[in-house]
Each structure stands twice: as structure tokens, then as C-alpha cells.
Automatic annotation (TrEMBL):
Residues 5-230 form the ABC transporter domain. Coiled coil: none annotated. It comes from Pontivivens ytuae. Belongs to the ABC transporter superfamily. It comes from the Bacteria. This is ATP-binding cassette domain-containing protein. Gene3D superfamilies: P-loop containing nucleotide triphosphate hydrolases. Keywords: ATP-binding, Nucleotide-binding. GO terms for cellular component: plasma membrane. Signal peptide: none annotated. One of its GO terms (molecular function) is ATP hydrolysis activity.
Length: 230
């Protein structure tokens, strides 16, 4: 099952204290697939980092099922992220010396012994679905951008998250691979009731989502409603 997200009075600022984003109120129901679009530099990545607890929040709350990630102590925040969130961000942060399967199943390093085989199996399945099973034993240092992206997606799914957060996951992929990735991720999200929040400009991806939010003029709006999501 996924988790619900509740954002209240969120203000995100830059290094000099300048305001980047202000989101008065936003709710995402459990199991909803949401696209976040908006011009380059609007603040999509900044928002995803904030809801992941990877970025300090100047004001407000970011609450996943009752837990305000912004208020958690650093270790508890890291544990929450590891246990509940699958994250596919633009800098994939793969371990260059490990092969694809080693990267995709990296969560085994933190998991209890009895969960490790499950994670490894999920990683293998995800790599297969994403079309790189034949390269699972190759070190990722030799992978293309698109292949790295797919390894990062497989890694996020292998940990068994309740929420999947992704930043332009189809950006470096050819149309066919991107469409396959979209189909697989949407199927998985639906099967498992995960909450999905994905920054993307890809019309094929956006068309498959339940809701489309737009980062615009320093806030988040929902086109169609044409008012700040409050
Ligand atoms: N720590 C920071 N200090 C100052 N400015 C910042 C900081 N972090 C982000 N910004 C600025 O905030 C704006 C939003 O950046 P962000 O990366 O979130 O945009 P984006 O919508 O994801 O864009 P893209 O589609 O190009 O990835 C940019 O102008 C960026 O330079």
C-alpha cells in the first residue's frame, strides 16, 4: 500500500534565503499517480527533494501518513526514506564498481537477512522488465545514460517502497524504452497501490497519471482547477 502526502505552508528557499517555492496546501491520496510538470528551473526537483526529506524546509510541513519528514531527526528521516520511499533522481548515484544487479539490489545492505532474497529477486525482475537483464552482470561504469536510468529505477523498486518519486525518468530514453518503462512502472504502482509522484514533460507519461500538477510562478497549481492547490 502507498502512503498519503499532506503538504502545508511549505516554503523552500535558496542558499541566500530567496524564495523558490511556496505551496500553501497540497494533498495526494494514497495510491494516486501524479505528474509534476512545469518549465525548466520552476522548482520541480526542489519540491521532490523536499518531500523526500533531502532538503531543508524553511517553513511548513511535509507529512507522509502522519510523519512530518521535515521534522524528523536525521537518522529517523534517513530510515523513513530507506523504508518507504523509492527515489529515482537525475544524478543516479550508482556505484560504478558494482554491476547492474549489485546496484539494483543495494538495499540488501540495510535489510534484514530474511528480506535479502526478496529484494534481490525484485531487482532481477525489475531489470528484466526494463530490458537490461542480459547486462545485469556488467559494471555500471560502462553503461549508457539510459541504461543507468533503468538501473536506478530497478533499484528504487527493488527496495519495496510505498511511494515512488522520480525526476524525469524517461528523459534520456528512446521512445520505445520510455514507453515500456512507463507501462511497467504504472503497472507496478497500480498492482501495489503505491503513491507515485513524477516530475516529467513526457506527454506519454503524463497521459497515464491520475492527476497533473504544474509548478508555475513559484507555486503548484492544478490545471483544470486553475487555482493554487489549496
Ligand atoms: N540551494 C539553492 N540556492 C539557490 N537557488 C537554488 C537552490 N536550489 C535550487 N535553486 C534554484 O531554484 C530553481 C528551481 O530549480 P529546480 O532544479 O528545482 O528546477 P526544475 O523545475 O527541476 O528544473 P529542470 O526541469 O531544469 O530540472 C532554479 O532556478 C535553481 O537554480
Amino acid at each position: 500500500m502507498g502512503l498519503p502526502l499532506e503538504v502545508r505552508g511549505l516554503v523552500l528557499t535558496g542558499d541566500e534565503g530567496e524564495r523558490i517555492l511556496h505551496v500553501p496546501a497540497l494533498d495526494i491520496a494514497t495510491g494516486t499517480a501524479v505528474a509534476l510538470r512545469g518549465p525548466s528551473g520552476a522548482g520541480k526537483s526542489t519540491f521532490l527533494h523536499a518531500v523526500s526529506g533531502l532538503r531543508e524546509v524553511a517553513e511548513g510541513t511535509v507529512t507522509w501518513d502522519g510523519a512530518d519528514v521535515a521534522a524528523l531527526a536525521p537518522e529517523r528521516r534517513a530510515a523513513f526514506r530507506r523504508d518507504a520511499l523509492g527515489i529515482v533522481f537525475q544524478d543516479h548515484l550508482l556505484f560504478e564498481e558494482l554491476d547492474a544487479l549489485g546496484n539494483a539490489s543495494i538495499a540488501t545492505g540495510f535489510a534484514r537477512r530474511r528480506d535479502r532474497a526478496v529484494i534481490r529477486e525484485r531487482a532481477r525482475t525489475a531489470l528484466g522488465r526494463l530490458g537490461i537483464a542480459q547486462a545485469e552482470g556488467r559494471r555500471v561504469a560502462s553503461f549508457s545514460g539510459g541504461e543507468r536510468q533503468r538501473v536506478a529505477v530497478a533499484r528504487a523498486l527493488a527496495a519495496g517502497p510505498r511511494v515512488l518519486l522520480a525526476d524525469e525518468p524517461t528523459a534520456n530514453l528512446d521512445r520505445e524504452t520510455a514507453d515500456r518503462l512507463i507501462e511497467d512502472v504504472v503497472a507496478l504502482v497500480r498492482e501495489q497501490g503505491l503513491t507515485l509522484l513524477v516530475a516529467s514533460h513526457d506527454p506519454h507519461l503524463i497521459a497515464r497519471m491520475d492527476r497533473v500538477l504544474e509548478v508555475r510562478d513559484g507555486t503548484i497549481v492544478e490545471p483544470g482547477r486553475e487555482a493554487a492547490v489549496a
